[in-house]
Model the fold of this input.
Amino acid sequence: MKAGRIFRGDRIIWVVFFLLSIFSLVEVYSSIGLEAYSHPAGSGPTGLFLKHLVIVVATYIAIILISRINYRVFSRFAVMGYWISIVLLGVVMVLGVRWLKIPHIGQFQPSEIAKVVLIIFVARVLTLKRENVKDLSTFIMLLVYIGIVAGMVLFENFSTAALIFLTCYLMMVFGGVKRSYWWRLLLVGLVVVTAFLAINYYKYKSTIETGSVQEVTIERQMTWGHRVYSWIHPNPEELTQENMARMAIARGGVLGVGVGNTVHARLMTQAHNDFIYAIIIEEMGMLGGIVVFMLYSILYFRCIRLAWRCKGRFGALTVAGMGTVIYLQALVNMSVAVGVLPVTGQTLPFISFGGTAYLFLGCGLGVIQAVAADVEKQEREELEGGTKTTDKTEETESQSI
Done:
């Protein structure tokens, strides 16, 4: 069987994903030491690495299977998926946790499911409302749908909520929402986020200076305040994850110290997750860091190029949204590792230790490949002199969703 029949869609995206997964397997195994020995299961590095390998393989299978589905079908399931996400987010809010456990399977973060589902849902709404996309009523409706999910995610993870909102905001821009609306939303959003972070920062600062615990309205306010405070006032004498990441990057230099020769990963609990980019630079140098950055940039470029080629509005917006959320999350993680942003808890897509985020972003990549396979099929039919379908693609797509 030819590889093209198995790995459907954009070949360059497949190559990028393959290279990212190779980086993942190598660097997770190299950096997982401390977490492995402190893990309650006591399975050691090999056991946790095998768990990660299973997730990577499962992600490959998910992408292959999803890429074989007519992507228009996802629009129908997005409505049900949206409301299921709301229910799951409500459960974690009530329980006061970030993870839900499935007996004999494991645990997952509902926010990761919501992130992928909401992108497809917003693409659906923008497609169905294309005739009224510049109306204020459509803009408000989109804000309500997006705001509900982002607001519920905010209680468990500020950075994920911001990532979700920013991605959907850019989808509205791509989707043709009236310029005056999204410009005002941008300004309001910047003011709100700045004020939100400033309030948390000063609450935490007051706690440090006075020694008294400040009253909080959201459980994780002190965590957010601490992260911003540590970013603005770093203490180089303190043995924190952030400082060890900086030392790892400095030690790596241009060419790195070699794979498996990391020192700082042995002291970090999050070396295989939030700060794996710092370990990549330590072991593979700045050149390795640049290669990883370029892989994400190529992936995003291919997604935007695919969105332009796609004649259907729903497919184009879905690909643009999925590509954007993957690229933004990668940029956030890399920025945290090098000290440009405060700690956020965002993993490095398709490289950090596997789990819900790895698998569900993989499902999102599968949707991208489903759109790519459909686009390639249409372009092939046109080149072969078949009936032109490009003029009716968007109409057919809208009828099917």
